[in-house]
Sequence to fold (176 residues):
Amino acid sequence: MRVFVIYGTIEGQTRKIARAIAETAQDKGWRATVYDMNDLAEADPAHADRVIIAAPVHAGDYPREVAEWIKANRLRLKAMPTAFVSVSLSAASQFAEEHEALDKITNAFFEETGFAPNAVHQAAGALRYADYDFLKRLLMRYIARKEGASTDTTKNHEFTEWDELARFIADFLAPA
Ligand SMILES: Cc1cc2nc3c(=O)[nH]c(=O)nc-3n(C[C@H](O)[C@H](O)[C@H](O)COP(=O)(O)O)c2cc1C
Fold:
């Protein structure tokens, strides 16, 4: 059985998450093929039994490349089991309203693209302060303070719960 892992990334955390998804899939006996948002023209879901899409939230939205691929393959995706892994800072927030706002962003994306995944996971991403330029570091520190995340800009912070992600993927890929 073959699973496609389709992902977009701006800062690299969703690439790490896509690779972890593929590893879990392989551990469960699946053949996993991973496609970055720049190679999506090659990704034909007709060649997969299931599809997992992972995408990060940046300024309240997901990457356009991923949205366009979903739209172009909407009918095929509707006819097969699919899962969506959303990656964001809000998923790590201690505030309920941040999670509600995040659900709105995810649902607006589903509405816009016509995507109706069978399973959705809200994964926490990372704050890569050390890799940001001055302005981005300032902006992310401001957002982090609002969300109750670390404002220590002297190091990077990873919030992804890897065991939770692996459980979600194993459940999604379990035999029906
Ligand atoms: C410029 C910028 C804007 C962001 N905007 C949001 C946002 O609107 N909501 C949110 O929850 N997280 C936001 N984040 C946090 C990212 O979702 C998080 O850093 C994630 O790990 C990025 O994934 P990537 O490394 O795959 O691009 C933002 C991050 C950056 C750098």
About this structure: The helical segments are 13-27, 64-72, 74-78, 96-113, 134-147, 162-173. The chain has two domains: 2-125+160-173, 128-159.
